[in-house]
Amino acid sequence: EENNSHTAYITMLRADASIVAVPVLVLLGQLVGVVLGSCQGGWTTWHGHCYLLVQTSHNFAQAQTQCGQLGTNAYLVEVDSSAENNFLLDMLNKAHGRHTWIGLDDQVIEGQFMTSHSHRTPEYTHWVSGNPDDYHGAQDCTYMYGDLSGTAIRGQWDDDSCNLSTWYTCEMREDGHVG
Question: Is this structure's pTM higher than 0.70?
Answer without folding.
Answer: yes
